[in-house]
Design a protein that fits this description.
This protein is mostly helical. The chain has a single domain, classed as Rhopdopsin 7-helix transmembrane proteins (Up-down Bundle). It has ten helices and three strands. α1 packs parallel to α9 and α8 runs antiparallel to α9. 31% of the residues are buried.
């Protein structure tokens, strides 16, 4: 519902300022973000292809990883093309429907990724703490069920958050001092009572964060307890090595979220918010496939074989 207080329909427009206050940096930033996006697309889609074509990677961990790569690709594609467009055009407007749609798909990806990271932590917990029962606990059917639940909860969360915005009335053009449509900014443009929407967002945002964090922290606490009980130093090193990539990805993901939450809401903090948003939306989807590929000899060997085949075919 988009209306004024007099029940007259209006076209509500949001203006995404992006990095427009730095006119001399528009071209360098465009080239930088275009390069990052290209690496993101190649890295994540390449990771999916590598996992599918190499039988050695047909394990639960890499089954989850290919879905994480797909979510990262989608998440980056939601916001980065609009960011690139706003760096080269004068008209930085976006309709309220477009803004809410971008937010809705973005929430689906964020919630799905956070739950996927929790599922991957559980997978590492089973692999290290119950290695003899790993194939039973992480059977193909259970892996498919876990991924289905992950995507389903992402969609359900998005529907709930989006509904809490659609019940509002919007009656003014709003300038967004960022390059992406965020919940708080969309909410601030409403001219109706926001109490219901704020409660819904508070409950479900914290529920998602707490449940996934508790799962991850509990899994790694039990993993570390098991590792420290091992008598063999080589066994401890191997166990740590299997967790290192995922733990790095989790630390960057939640570290960036905490960074954004800890930024004080003042006019001087907008640059930090934008930098945090760039890390969260643009950079993390690029570095995730790098984290998992650079530490894995099987992945690196598959890449070398593909490059070798390409050279021969030429």
């Amino acid at each position: 519902m988009v209306s004024t207080g007099k029940n007259q329909s209006v076209a509500v427009i949001f203006i995404l300022l992006g990095f427009s206050e730095y006119p001399k940096l528009q071209v360098p930033l465009f080239l930088l973000f275009l390069t990052i996006y290209a690496v993101t697309v190649v890295g994540n889609l390449g990771m999916i292809v590598i996992i599918r074509i190499n039988p050695k990677l047909h394990t639960p961990m890499y089954f989850f990883l290919q879905h994480l790569s797909f979510v990262d690709f989608c998440y980056s594609t939601i916001a980065t093309p609009k960011l690139l467009e706003n760096l080269v055009v004068e008209d930085r407007s976006i309709s309220i429907k477009g803004c809410i749609s971008q937010f809705s798909i973005g929430v689906t990806c964020v919630v799905t990724e956070s739950v996927m990271l929790a599922v991957m932590a559980y997978d590492r917990f089973v692999a290290i703490c119950y290695p003899l029962l790993y194939t039973v606990f992480m059977s193909p059917k259970r892996c498919i069920l876990l991924v289905s639940v992950t995507y389903s909860w992402g969609v359900i969360s998005s529907i709930i958050f989006t509904y809490s915005l659609l019940v509002l009335s919007f009656c003014e053009t709003k300038i967004i001092n960022n390059f992406v449509c965020e919940y708080s900014v969309i909410l601030s443009a409403s001219c109706s009572d926001k109490h219901f929407s704020e409660i819904i967002f508070f409950i479900f945002a914290n529920l998602n964060a707490l449940c996934t964090l508790i799962t991850i922290l509990t899994s790694y606490f039990l993993i570390f307890v098991t590792i420290f009980k091992m008598n063999s130093s080589s066994g401890r090193y191997k166990a740590f090595s299997t967790c290192a990539s995922h733990l790095t990805a989790v630390s960057i993901f939640y570290g960036t979220i905490l960074f954004l939450y800890c930024i004080p809401s003042s006019q001087n903090s907008w640059l930090l918010v934008k930098v945090g948003s760039v890390l969260y939306i643009v950079v993390i989807p690029m570095i995730n496939p790098l984290i998992y590929s650079l530490r894995n000899n099987v992945v690196k060997e598959t890449i070398r074989k593909l490059m070798h085949l390409k050279i021969i075919s030429q």
